[in-house]
Design a protein that fits this description.
The longest helix is centred in the first third of the chain and has 31 residues, at about 1-30. The protein is mainly α. The strands form 2 sheets. Strands 1-2 form a two-stranded antiparallel sheet. The protein starts with a helix and ends in a 9-residue tail after the last helix. It has helices at about 1-30, 35-50, 70-85, 95-125, 140-165, 180-195, 200-230, 245-270, and strands spanning about 60, 60-65, 90-95, 170-175. The protein contains 8 helices and 4 strands. The model has no long low-confidence stretch (mean pLDDT about 90). α3 packs parallel to α5, α5 runs parallel beside α7 (about 200-230) and α7 packs across α8.
Amino acid sequence: MEQASSRSLMQNLTRWFVPIAAMLAFAVWFSIAPPGLLGKADAVGYAVCHRIDERSFHVFGRQLPLCARCTGEFYAAATTLLFLGIVSPKKSGMPGWKLGAPLALFFLAFAIDGSNSYLYLLKQTSQGALANIPNLYVPNNTLRLFTGSGMGIALASILFPAFNSSAWKTPDPSPALGWRKLAILITIIFIVDLLILTEHAAILYPIVIVSVLGVLSLLVIVFSMVWVLVMREENAFDNLAQMWMPLLAGTTLAFLLIAVIDLLRFRLTGTWGGFPLG
């Protein structure tokens, strides 16, 4: 009886505390972020991406909020989450080892290209022995976009069933992703990547929004799962409407994290642009 009473008190307190904390967290972030829709998008990208100008796509001479690799990663993650939400609702089965093989290749390609790109950056910005670092190949934004997109598919394909497994009272144990669904996803992402490479404004402006939503979606899902575990509410919900508290708490923590990183980075660099190269 006492334990139930304590839990009820905690739930009542969180019903007041979380909405207030959400408003405060968003207000703080909104006040420090640059003005305008693209300025706010820059502030989200600023928290997760180096935003180096030469490694980013541009629209009308303006750098996108995320570099080419992060643009691919987060728009692909958002697209994958939306796709799976439509075709695999509440499915909580992880990819098997056979289906996990192409996802592992996406991780590997991301790691190889990212490491090679970082070593190339050291070569460009350093003197002495570091200037002679060997590279597998000269990195470019096309490879960054494609390897980032693969990583986005892989991340979302694992996070989606993990969320379903922890949230729903009656999750569907069948795999959320199958070969046919993966083939459709890869085809969609490949076509969108080709469109992004045209750097046409009609393509890049929507991609800005989708990629930023991808950042927020991944953070909100992760923090919502953490909230569910901390509050011991695993498998307690029937639909998203019932999950308003964990989702709001996840959103609050996401904006707090973004605001803290934004403040620290701006204090360190003094600019909302990319990390200085020299």
